[in-house]
Known about the structure:
This protein is mainly β. Helix content is 0%, strand content 44%.
Amino acid sequence: MSEIEPGMRVRQPDRPDWGLGQVQSVIGDRVTVNFENAGKLLLNLAVVTLEQVED
């Protein structure tokens, strides 16, 4: 997968119930994503996988 950048649309494949999310910020391995059904979450990319969603 390409580098995660603010503005990207993503999903977390292990948690489809979260819905689609938009990356808000990226600092090192820490990514803040605003998900449709889970709200704003801080995720650690060393532990969690995000998949980019093509528009």
